[in-house]
Specification:
single chain, alpha/beta, 4-stranded mixed sheet
């Protein structure tokens, strides 16, 4: 096999790692096959490529590295010390590539693949477990990677490719995302059971203008809805506490720290009274979002179809609390 050195194609020590990988990667499996067989013709036969193509690839590989990887002995070859050192790392790299390929194939398998699914904290106690249980009745082998967070954080992970789908509220309207409405929850004004309004069933939100509120932190969808409804009712809420979970807020309401606008709990909580808000459309819409133009694997497509089939019945009757 002819062997000519060319300093013009040799990678310099200061070349970026990305450039080196891009240049060398296509020829690593060729190198490994020749190193294993110690014969270019046999390696070319195994790889099902012309011998001339393989020979040129090896010469170019040595030129790019600037070292000789093989000693030539007529029709056979053997690794040089540099070649043996290089082979150790090449074998590890090819093994990792093989594992990665097997992993992505497994995740895309229609019967045993994986769905990366995000959802709101308020969906975690009842809604999401019920959804997964119902879906797995027909797809028992599908695996889930679950992320529970507030809406904006999940949308960021969706954009980063870390999630396939997410349940969120409000329903996003943003470039690069597709979202579909699935259901809605009527928000209630939650007050302590000894509050001046506790004997009522209905209340206008403006009647709570002088109250202290406990709310979720800025950035949470429910916080934006709360602020918007209060503004619509003609006041800015005085906030005593900003939290991360609605049940924590409900507990603080029971302790008398303030009032809150919250969706219905999965299980009724003692110490509070939940009042229907009238005069405004006090609801939060729940939707599913995904990346626009992002191809779905079979398990993701199946779960997306399942979620869309739950329009209007995503939530239980209690947690939906429709009037």
């Amino acid at each position: 096999m002819a062997h000519k050195k060319s300093s013009e194609t040799r990678l310099s020590p200061s070349s970026d790692t990305e450039d080196i990988v891009t240049t060398l990667a296509p020829r690593l499996s060729y190198f490994a096959a020749v190193a294993r067989t110690e014969h270019v013709t046999r390696a070319a036969h195994e790889l099902q490529i012309p011998q001339s193509t393989l020979s040129r690839a090896l010469v170019r590989l040595e030129q790019d590295l600037g070292v000789e990887l093989f000693a030539r002995h007529g029709r056979t070859v053997s690794l040089t010390p540099a070649g043996r050192t290089f082979l150790t790392s090449v074998d590890k790299a090819l093994t990792e590539v093989g594992r990665a390929a097997e992993s992505v194939r497994a995740d895309a398998d229609p019967t045993s693949g994986k769905v990366a699914f995000g959802f709101l904290h308020t969906m975690g106690s009842e809604t999401v477990p019920g959804l997964i249980r119902a879906f797995r009745a027909d797809h028992p082998g599908i695996r889930f990677s679950l992320v529970q967070n507030y809406g904006e954080a999940m949308l960021e992970r969706l954009r980063a490719g870390e999630l396939d789908l997410c349940l969120t509220s409000p329903i996003p309207d943003a470039p690069g995302l597709v979202a579909r409405r699935l259901d809605e929850q009527r928000l209630r004004l939650v007050v302590p059971d000894d509050h001046r309004l506790a004997g009522r069933k209905r209340v206008r939100l403006a009647e709570a203008a002088d109250e202290t509120f406990v709310t979720l932190e800025p950035g949470y969808g429910l916080r934006r809805i709360t602020d918007g409804l209060c503004t619509e009712a003609g006041f800015k809420p005085r906030v005593a506490f900003e939290g991360e979970e609605t049940e924590t807020l409900r507990g603080l309401v029971a302790a008398g720290l303030g009032v809150a606008l919250l969706p219905p709990p999965a299980v009724p909580r003692p110490g509070v009274v939940e009042l229907t808000v009238t005069g405004q459309r006090a609801v939060r819409e729940i939707g599913v979002a995904w990346l626009d133009g992002h191809p779905d694997t079979p398990p993701v497509a199946a779960f997306k179809k399942f979620l869309l089939s739950r329009r209007g019945k995503l939530l239980s009757e209690w947690t939906r609390a429709d009037e």
